[in-house]
Fold:
Amino acid sequence: MLAPKLICVLIAERGAADFVISTLLDLAKEQNRYRLRIYVPLLVYNFLTKSHGQLISDAEIKVYDSELKKSQIAEISDAHCLLSSATSKKAELQFSTIAKVDAIPIVHVVDAFYGYRKRMLFLGKVYHFEKIIVIDDEAKKEAVAEGLPPESMVSLGHPGWEAISKNKLIAVRRKNKLTRNTIFFGAPIKRDYKNTLGFCEDDAWSLLVGSWKFFPDLFENVIYCPHPQQTEIPQLHGAELVEYNPDLFINFNQIFGIFSAPLIHAALLGCISISLQPVKNKKDVCAFSRRGFVWRATTSEEIRVLLEKSSMLNCGQLLKELDGSSSRLQKLIEEHAVNKCISAEQNV
Structure:
């Protein structure tokens, strides 16, 4: 029997974890074919421990700080394939350098609809890569326009969104009466964008609070879910502060944010999902609303219209495109791992 192929994975941020987690769970079940060694910072490790304990049991988990340790670098060289997030972190650059030095195929995942090239750099140094995964063909065009090589780009969907679209929550939601219960998702905009967008997370929250006061009949329970990297919480005005959990979508039907990933999660589950951007005559900064997956609102009146119409978007085409995302990612990993084995045999 052939020895299992070692797949080393680096997940630098929560968003990347959401992209790859369902595929890693599938790979971990095939222990006669694969061994998984996963490198994560403490924040991601805590998320895996809380939400994906089975992966903690089935895979080898290595926790790092801001960069990989020398001992961790040394143990990666026997991998058949490397899978890495792309979030402009030092550990990702280290990971890709190991791949280049030891001739290990490496695949990077860009789990968002913006900043493709920027995510493949750390302090101006470009990551090494065989392939770069993006979500769809439009993202591929955007990434190429930013200077990434078209021959290296692969659009294969989003395994995490595919898993959400098949989640039991959809069936449970259909049985429940739709409510006016409302979630707002915070974001670290002031930290990441300063004043370049023309508004920040506090402005978006103020827009929602104002709408809540102007049109109280359109809102029931209101909760504020902070971003995992958000350090400042605004005045809540009677809202409850709650940590995000997808199960919230069972009873909360009106979902607001700016461009947080849960906006698309909510839309896929059949919620009213709205990107708040309180600035006029500006480009839509949310890729989800630009693509028509969620709504955009810039004023309280626009919010009122959307809520009164119970405006849920039809994500049917997106659901079709997402179908098979995880199996496509698994196939890509397998192909690169096999190529590594063939190359090693030829060099013997």
In short: The chain has a mean pLDDT of 90. The first strand starts at residue 5 and ends at 10.
